[in-house]
Amino acid sequence: MDSQTQLTAEELNEIIQLIYTQHGYDFSDYARSSLLRRVARCMTIAEFKTSYELKYHLINDKSFFAWFLETLTVNVTEMFRDPIFYKELREKVIPTLASYPIIKVWHAGCATGEEVYSMAILLQEAGLLNRTKMYATDLNPVNLERARQGIIPLKQIKEYTTNYIKSGGTNDFSAYYTAQYDNAIIHKEYREEVVFARHNLAVDQVFNEFQLICCRNVMIYFNQELQNRAVHLFHDSLSPLGYLAIGIKESLLFTDIKEQFEAISPLARIYRRKK
Amino acid sequence: MTKNNVDIVVIGGSAGSIPVICELIEALPSPFDFAVVIVIHRSKNVISEMEQILAVKRKEIMVKEPDDKEPIQKNCVYLAPQNYHLLIEETHSFCLDYSELVSYSRPSIDVTFESIAEIYTQKAVSILLSGANGDGSHGMAEIIARGGTGIVQEPSTAEYPVMPQLALDANAEAKAWTPAQISTYIHTLNV
Asked: Phi and psi at residue A22, in whole multiples of 5°?
């Protein structure tokens, strides 16, 4: 990883433009510092020495783009990442969701689904899962397929169990999955409650109304303009008094719509849409 | 080093680095005309008290974990948040990144050093302290290659000499200084 391919800002701009014209994905408002690393990483793995090689494959090699998109986007995730967030969710948000006859939750940028299933477990423990409709979206179709399968490498389970307990979970975590060989599979009752679909926060629009939207550690890859667009989209997708959860180091402070939200948990970055 | 030649000082450390980091923060001039960024390898998914651990006797110096897209200001000490890589945008604001571990670490020192090299070029000073793996060497090479400065804790003074030794092996131009020498250097950076 240390000897990464070097790429200039200008070359990166050309590649962004090419991806847009050839494949329709708009990365122009992604944060340049992380995008530069991601593109350089793709080139290192593909063993391309120059941006010309990358451009050649983006134009001429149809099968290359699927691999490129999957490798470019960050798919790292954990179950119960930031246990304090889930603890706050358990104590401050989920009890108030119980007043709705049908609860709709949107996970925007769900990667391979670990946080979606973490949320499903919390809702189940509160007795709300059977009246919740969960939507999980991502721009990367490979992620969505993996998320749908709900398969977790067994070597991660120990860490996830620790996270679960720190989040205030009191059940036996193994009640939520079946272990087989090197993997654990999340029980069907959780997988069946989630609708997985393509949605790109850079271009797509409102598609439903939600009581809770989770978009954690997704907007860090956006520049301020695109962050602003996404937060407007979330605002318009929330019912009045609906909740928005963002990453623990993300902030609404740099958006022009911050006044429309009230911080419910400043520590866990959970906000509530004002009426 | 004369006034206004340094916009940012980035300090990387791992095992055994915290006492030295505290010493370096204590040595900062008042006020300091540059930003300080600290990257330490540490646990994730725990409540972090590192901001308090690094809080020094000088009450006017606050150590802050930046939020994503927070603008970088001089006279401020920033600490890379746990479980993210810390990058710098062209607009001189922080950008967090939750991608794969680098050198078994997130935050990785290399990642931040490389990003600072790209944006701050010759106005960056990198300091690498005690630690037990090879993180930071490559990033320091990038900073030096773009005209910035590389300083490494003299390995014999480090609790874990592996990280500084590897950085010196990889960077002939890096200075090997004791914590006291680095403190003096930092103290006079403004002047």
From this structure: -85, -35
Of B135, B137, B138, B183, catalytic: B135
What is the complex's ipTM, to 2 decimals?
0.89
Can you give the residue range of the structural domain that contains B49?
A: 8-187
Give burial (CB, 10 Å; 0-12/13-18/19+) of A45.
middle
**How far is the alpha carbon of A164 from chain B, nearest alpha carbon, in Å?**
11
Place of tokens 């992604």: A30
CB-CB contact of A244 with A227 (8 Å)? no
B83-93, pLDDT tens digit by residue? 999 999 999 99
Q: Which residues of chain A have pLDDT under 70?
A: 1-4
Residues A94 and A228 in one domain: yes
- Where helices occur in chain B by DSSP H, the ranges are 18-26, 50-53, 109-120, 137-145, 162-170, 179-187
pLDDT for the residue numbered A1: 41
Q: Which of A34, A37, A82 sits opposite B45 (nearest CB)?
A: A82
Q: Determine the length of chain A.
A: 275
Instruction: Domain count for chain A, please give it.
Output: 2
Burial of A155 (0-12, 13-18, 19+ CB in 10 A): exposed
- Whether A242 has its CB under 8 Å from any CB of chain B: the answer is no
B14 is catalytic: yes
Clarify whether residues A54 and A120 are in a common domain.
no
Question: What is the CATH classification number for the domain harbouring A263?
Answer: 3.40.50.150
In a domain, B54, yes or no: yes
Closest by Cβ to A254, choosing from B69, B96, B115: B69
**B2 falls within a domain:** no
Nearest to A249 among B68, B99, B110 (CB): B68
Residue B49 has a pLDDT of 72
| Cβ neighbours, 10 Å, residue A170 | 7
pLDDT at A75: 85
Output the domain CATH number for residue B58. 3.40.50.180
Q: Which pTM was predicted?
A: 0.92
Indicate yes or no: CB of B69 within 8 angstroms of CB of A251: yes
Choose among B20, B10, B17: nearest CA to B143: B10
Domain match, A123 and A257 both: yes
The residue-averaged pLDDT of B42-70 equals: 81
